C-alpha cells in the first residue's frame, strides 16, 4: 500500500523523517519497498495561466500560447496539446527546467515561432498514466477552479508532489495495514502516540424518504456473507471530486473518476473497507439478492470485458440479473454515469476464500479484492458506509436517506488471550516487568486485565490476525524492538554437522554425472498433460492444477525426461548440437482417484545428443550411442555397491522409446529405471536429433540395501585366459550367457569379456557366432593348467547344456 506521509500527519504530530519512519516500519511491522518523493529530480516547474491561445500559422495542430508565469511579462510557448485553450491554469516547465527522466527544457523555435518553455501533461512530470484523470490522458493537465493555484508558484505542493510516499508490502496476515487508519494505529504504537481519527458522522433530516420503500435486500448465501449493508443518496449531481481529494487519490496510486466513485475509493483507503456504488435508476428490480448464478452465465464487468461465470462465483443481483461480482468488480449495467441522480452504496464483508478464488479464476485482482482476501474490520463497516453517504451528499449536492439497510449486521468479536509474565520473558529471553508489558499492550490499544503476573488481553476486532498467546508474544517483541532482544545461543548439546546418507549419495551421483560430461538442468515441475504421461516408470493418474498459469504448466510432471528433451530442443534450436544434461528432482504420482495430495518420488534422469567427445586435432567426434550412456549409468550404479546385482533387460514395449535400443534397469528383481534411444517419432515431435536418455527411481536406489564399502588387494599372482567361440541362437542375449557362465563357474573366474560377434556368410540362418575371453586368477596362489582347464571345461559344458551351443 502507498502510505502518504502528509496524510499520516493528520492523525498525530510526526517529527520523524520519512525514511527513518520507513526503516522503523520495516523493522517492526511489514516490508517497505520504497520511499519516493515525486518532486525529486524536477526543477523550475510552475503554475501558468494561458492569457491567449492562437493557431500556429504554419501547422495544423500547434498553438501559440501567451502564458502568465508570475513574471513581469507573459512568455510565449508553442503547444501541440489538443485540449489547450485560453483561460486555463496549467503546468509550465520553464527554460532550464528538468522534467521526468531528467529531460532538460530549453528555448527553441518550432516552425519559426519562439517557444520559451513547455506546457506539460501529468505524465511528463512523473505521474503514472494509470492515475491521470481520463480527460487529461491525451493532453495537458488543467487545474480545476477549486485548486486555488497562482501563476508562477511551484506546482509540487498543489499536486502533492512534495509528499513522501512509503510503499509497503503488506503480508497476508496484516490486512489491517491496507488502510490509513490501520497504519495510524501501527505507527502510533511504534512511537507511543495516540492517533486522532476524523470519522465524519452521517447528517440527515427527517424529511427523507423511507429506505424500506426504495430497496430491499435478501441474502441467499448466508454462509458466505459476514456483513451486508446499503445506503442511498438522492438528487446527486455527478461531477469531478474536490481537487484535494483527486490529489490524495493520485498520490495513493488511484485514478480520479468522479465524485461518487472517488468517495468510495477514498473510504477504502482510509478505513480499508471496499465500497461499491450502483446507479439506483438502472436497477431493474428494487430487490438486491446476494447469491449465485448458473454456471456459464455471461456477465460484463466495469472494464468492458464479458466474462463467463462459474456456479461458485458470489454475485450481487437486482432480482435475477447480475450487477456485480461480490468483492471483486461491479457490472457495466449499473455503473455511475453523468446521468446518475440516485446512488446506492454497498458496504459488506464476504468470505475471503470465495473472493480469492473468483479473483484468481477471472484474473481480476482489484484493490477491493485484495482487501477482502486479507480481511475487513467488522467494527467499521457501518462507520465507513455512513461517512461515504455523508461525503456523497456533500460533494454531490444531494440528500442522504436517513436510515440504511442491514441484511447481515457486522459482528465484531474481540478475542481474549491469556498469558503470564514468566512465559513472555522465557520465550523472548527478556526480563520485562509487568508495567513494561502493560505499557506495550496499551500502546497497541489492547485492553489488559492483570492478576498477579497473568495478563488477560482483549484484542479489538481490527486485529483479526491475533488469536493465541504466540501472537501476543510477537506483538510484544515487535513493539519492544527486535534489536533490543538479547542475543543468546540456543542451549543443548553440540553435534558435528554432516550430510545424511541420502545427501551423501545424491552428491556422489551428481559428481559422477558431472565428471562424465553431463551438465545439471532444472526443469519446471509443471508441464502439459501429454508430456506428463510420457516416459513413465509406473502407472499413475495426472494431477491437474485448478488455476494453472498457462496450458503449458497445467499438470504436475510424472517424469523428468520430457523436461530434459525440452531443454535439448532449446539448445538444438540455437545451433548447440552437443548437449548432455541430467536432472535430479521429484515426480508426482497419484495412484488413487480420490487421492488429494500426490506422492512425491525422487528421480534421476539424463539426456545426451550429439557427441560426448568433442572434435580435436587427434580425433573426430564420436556420436553418442547406447553403450556410452550405459557405461555412465553402470559406473553410477556400480559405485553404490548394491547387495543385489544390477542387470539390463531389453524392452520393446515402451511407447516413447526405440524398440530395438531400449533396456529396463533391474536391481535384483525390481525395475528401477530404463535406458535407451528416444523413439524417432517422439524425437521429431520435440524437434531434436537422435537422443539417448535414462531415468532412474532415485528413491528406490537410496532405499536399496548396500554392501559396506571394502577394498580387495590386487593379486600378485598371474592370470590365465581362455578363449571360447560359440555358435548360438541369435535370440540369446549377452546377459544370459554371462549369467550362465557365472552360475557354473568356480571361484577363480575373474572376468568375462565379449570380443567378437558375427552374423553372415558361413553362419546358419537364425544363428550368430560370439567369442569370449575368460580370465582366471587365484588371489593366493599360482593357478595350474589343470585347475584352469577343469573350470573352463565345466563352463563350456554349461553353455552347451543351457543354450544348445556349438563350440567352434
How does this model look, in words?
- The protein has 808 residues and is α+β, with helices and mostly antiparallel strands.
- The protein has six domains: 2-38 and 163-191, Phenylalanyl-tRNA Synthetase, Chain B, domain 1 (2-Layer Sandwich), CATH 3.30.56; 43-147, Beta Barrel (OB fold (Dihydrolipoamide Acetyltransferase, E2P)); 211-408, Phenylalanyl-trna Synthetase, Chain B, domain 3 (Phenylalanyl-tRNA Synthetase, Chain B, domain 3), CATH 3.50.40.10; 415-484, 2-Layer Sandwich (Phenylalanyl-tRNA Synthetase, Chain B, domain 1); 501-703, BirA Bifunctional Protein, domain 2 (2-Layer Sandwich), CATH 3.30.930.10; 720-807, Alpha-Beta Plaits.
- It contains 20 helices and 40 strands.
- Strands 26-29-30-36-35-34-33 form a seven-stranded mixed sheet, sandwiched between helices. Strands 5-4-3-6-9 form a five-stranded antiparallel sheet, with no helix packed on it.
Amino acid at each position: 500500500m502507498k502510505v502518504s506521509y502528509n496524510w499520516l500527519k493528520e492523525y498525530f504530530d510526526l517529527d520523524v523523517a520519512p525514511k527513518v519512519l520507513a526503516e522503523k516500519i520495516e523493522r517492526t511491522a511489514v516490508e517497505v519497498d520504497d520511499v519516493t518523493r515525486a518532486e525529486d529530480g524536477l526543477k523550475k516547474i510552475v503554475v501558468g495561466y494561458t492569457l491567449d491561445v492562437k493557431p500556429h500559422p504554419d501547422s495544423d495542430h500547434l498553438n501559440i500560447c501567451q502564458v502568465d508565469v508570475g513574471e513581469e511579462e507573459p512568455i510565449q510557448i508553442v503547444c501541440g496539446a489538443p485540449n489547450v485553450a485560453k483561460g486555463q491554469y496549467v503546468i509550465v516547465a520553464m527554460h532550464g527546467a528538468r522534467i521526468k527522466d531528467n529531460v532538460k527544457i530549453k528555448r527553441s523555435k518550432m516552425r519559426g515561432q519562439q517557444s520559451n518553455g513547455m506546457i506539460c501533461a501529468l505524465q511528463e512530470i512523473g505521474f503514472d498514466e494509470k492515475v491521470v484523470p481520463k480527460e487529461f490522458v491525451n493532453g495537458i493537465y488543467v487545474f480545476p477552479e477549486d485548486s486555488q493555484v497562482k501563476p508562477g508558484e511551484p506546482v509540487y505542493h498543489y499536486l502533492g508532489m512534495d509528499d513522501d510516499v512509503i510503499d509497503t508490502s503488506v503480508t497476508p496476515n496484516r490486512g489491517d495495514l491496507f488502510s490509513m487508519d490501520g497504519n495510524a494505529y501501527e505507527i502510533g504504537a511504534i512511537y507511543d502516540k495516540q492517533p486522532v481519527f476524523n470519522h465524519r458522522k452521517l447528517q440527515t433530516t427527517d424529511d427523507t424518504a423511507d429506505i424500506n420503500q426504495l430497496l430491499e435486500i435478501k441474502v441467499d448465501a448466508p454462509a458466505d456473507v459476514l456483513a451486508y449493508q446499503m445506503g442511498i443518496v438522492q438528487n446527486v449531481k455527478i461531477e469531478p471530486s474536490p481537487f484535494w481529494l483527486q490529489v490524495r487519490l493520485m498520490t495513493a496510486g488511484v485514478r480520479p473518476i468522479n465524485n461518487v466513485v472517488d468517495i468510495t475509493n477514498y473510504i477504502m483507503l482510509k478505513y480499508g473497507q471496499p465500497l461499491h456504488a450502483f446507479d439506483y435508476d438502472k436497477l431493474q428490480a428494487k430487490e438486491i439478492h446476494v447469491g449465485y448464478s448458473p454456471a456459464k452465465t455471461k456477465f460484463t464487468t466495469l472494464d468492458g470485458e464479458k466474462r463467463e461465470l462459474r456456479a461458485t462465483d458470489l454475485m450481487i443481483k437486482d432480482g435475477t440479473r447480475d450487477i456485480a461480482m461480490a468483492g471483486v468488480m461491479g457490472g457495466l449495467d449499473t455503473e455511475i454515469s453523468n446521468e446518475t441522480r440516485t446512488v446506492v452504496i454497498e458496504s459488506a464483508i464476504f468470505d475471503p476464500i470465495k473472493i480469492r478464488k473468483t479473483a484468481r479464476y477471472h484474473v481480476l485482482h482489484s484493490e477491493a479484492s485484495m482487501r477482502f482476501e486479507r480481511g475487513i474490520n467488522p467494527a467499521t463497516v457501518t462507520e465507513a458506509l455512513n461517512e461515504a453517504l455523508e461525503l456523497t451528499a456533500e460533494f454531490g449536492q444531494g440528500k442522504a436517506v436517513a436510515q440504511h439497510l442491514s441484511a447481515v449486521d457486522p459482528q465484531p468479536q474481540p478475542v481474549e488471550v491469556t498469558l503470564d509474565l514468566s512465559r513472555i520473558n522465557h520465550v523472548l529471553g527478556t526480563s520485562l516487568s509487568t508495567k513494561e508489558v502493560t505499557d506495550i499492550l496499551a500502546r497497541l490499544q489492547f485492553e489488559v486485565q492483570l492478576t498477579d503476573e497473568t495478563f488477560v488481553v482483549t484484542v479489538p476486532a481490527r486485529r483479526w490476525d491475533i488469536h493465541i498467546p504466540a501472537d501476543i508474544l510477537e506483538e510484544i517483541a515487535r513493539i519492544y524492538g527486535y534489536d533490543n532482544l538479547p542475543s543468546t545461543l540456543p542451549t543443548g548439546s553440540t553435534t558435528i554437522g554432516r550430510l545424511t546418507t541420502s545427501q551423501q549419495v545424491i552428491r556422489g551421483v551428481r559428481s559422477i554425472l558431472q565428471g562424465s560430461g553431463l551438465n545439471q538442468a532444472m526443469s519446471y515441475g509443471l508441464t502439459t498433460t501429454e508430456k506428463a504421461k510420457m516416459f513413465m516408470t509406473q502407472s499413475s493418474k495426472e494431477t491437474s492444477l485448478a488455476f494453472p498459469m498457462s496450458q503449458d504448466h497445467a499438470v504436475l510432471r510424472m517424469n523428468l525426461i520430457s523436461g530434459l528433451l525440452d531443454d535439448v530442443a532449446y539448445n538444438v534450436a540455437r545451433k548447440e548440437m552437443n548437449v548432455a544434461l541430467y536432472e535430479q528432482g521429484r515426480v508426482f504420482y497419484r495412484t488413487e482417484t480420490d487421492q488429494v495430495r500426490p506422492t512425491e518420488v525422487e528421480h534421476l534422469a539424463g539426456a545426451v545428443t550429439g557427441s560426448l567427445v568433442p572434435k580435436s586435432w587427434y580425433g573426430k567426434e564420436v556420436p553418442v550411442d547406447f553403450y556410452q550412456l550405459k557405461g555412465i549409468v553402470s559406473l553410477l550404479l556400480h559405485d553404490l555397491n548394491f547387495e543385489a546385482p544390477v542387470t539390463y533387460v531389453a524392452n520393446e514395449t515402451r511407447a516413447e522409446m526405440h524398440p530395438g535400443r531400449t533396456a529396463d534397469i533391474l536391481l535384483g528383481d525390481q525395475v528401477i529405471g530404463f535406458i535407451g534411444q528416444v523413439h524417432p517419432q517422439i524425437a521429431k515431435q520435440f524437434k531434436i536429433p537422435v537422443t539417448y536418455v535414462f531415468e532412474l527411481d532415485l528413491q528406490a536406489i537410496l532405499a536399496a540395501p548396500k554392501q559396506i564399502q571394502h577394498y580387495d588387494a590386487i593379486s600378485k599372482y598371474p592370470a590365465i585366459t581362455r578363449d571360447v567361440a560359440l555358435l548360438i541362437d541369435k535370440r540369446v542375449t549377452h546377459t544370459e550367457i554371462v549369467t550362465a557362465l557365472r552360475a557354473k563357474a568356480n571361484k577363480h573366474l575373474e572376468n568375462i569379456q565379449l570380443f567378437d560377434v558375427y552374423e553372415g556368410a558361413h553362419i546358419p540362418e537364425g544363428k550368430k557366432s560370439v567369442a569370449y575371453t575368460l580370465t582366471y586368477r587365484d588371489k593366493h596362489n599360482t593357478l595350474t593348467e589343470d585347475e584352469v582347464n577343469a573350470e573352463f571345461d565345466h563352463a563350456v559344458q554349461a553353455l552347451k547344456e543351457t543354450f544348445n551351443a556349438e563350440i567352434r
